[in-house]
Design brief:
Number of helices: 10
Helix content: 40-55%
CATH topology of the largest domain: Rossmann fold
Number of domains: 2
CATH architecture of the largest domain: 3-Layer(aba) Sandwich
Number of strands: 7
Radius of gyration: 18 Å
Length: about 220
């Protein structure tokens, strides 16, 4: 469900895209308390988000990774492909070590986890509005360390081998979703999901469906 709001008189207009109504409400309260910011639109899926962003032309969009029926990563890519210049800050429950670099590659300008303090969220918003990229000190340090490594390639997490769509399928498998459920959730054909499952098994060197389910459940438990 979308709650579309017309821009108020404050200068900075913010769109929030998240599939949890209570989170949207808390974030709207936090942002509307700022003297120079206001929420101009809310959405919980890609289609609604694209419509609202095109209608309101906000100064920044705050996007969750998990949305109804798809991924925030796909929304970020769609915005970029459509030529929308709105900067995106990802605010998600998912560990930044798993998703932050994927979000940046998709076109986001920053990544904040939901467990971080409200002050950190506001700092991240303002950094992105200033044209900067916002990441935690820990992740920034890790990325820089990787860049300066010499002599051997530094391997990231095993799931880094998966594409964004494969990671979505892997995550849903870990949550116990059957192939048909995954297909309905991601609006894919059953054969397409089966293809993704096979690719995931190959990339993670898994022998069968049982190993795939076990690995996916382990990963989801760690990520959540």
């Amino acid at each position: 469900m979308t709650a579309l709001k017309l821009p108020a008189t404050k200068g900075i207009r913010v769109v929030v895209v998240d599939d949890h109504p209570m989170l949207r409400e808390r974030l709207a309260h936090l942002i509307n308390k700022e003297e120079d910011m206001t929420i101009c639109g809310e959405a919980d899926n890609i289609q609604q988000a694209m419509e609202i962003i095109q209608q309101t032309n906000p100064d920044i969009a705050i996007v969750d990774i998990t949305l109804h029926g798809s991924s925030g990563l796909e929304l970020i890519k769609n915005l970029k492909a459509a030529g929308c210049g709105v900067p995106v800050l990802v605010l998600s429950m998912h560990d930044e070590s798993l998703y932050a670099q994927r979000a940046l590659r998709a076109g986001a300008r920053g990544y904040v986890t939901k467990h971080q303090a409200s002050e950190t969220v506001m700092i991240a918003i303002r950094r992105v509005l200033q044209g900067e990229v916002y990441l935690s000190e820990h992740l920034t340090s890790r990325i820089l360390k990787t860049l300066v490594e010499t002599g051997s390639k530094v391997e990231g997490p095993v799931v880094d081998r998966l594409t964004d769509r494969e990671l979505e399928v892997f995550q849903l498998i870990g949550h116990g979703r059957a192939t048909r459920e995954i297909a309905e959730t991601l609006h894919l054909g059953i054969k397409t999901v089966d293809t993704y499952r096979e690719r995931i098994k190959q990339k993670l060197h898994l022998q069968n469906a049982a190993e795939l389910h076990h690995r996916a459940m382990q990963w989801v438990t760690k990520a959540d």
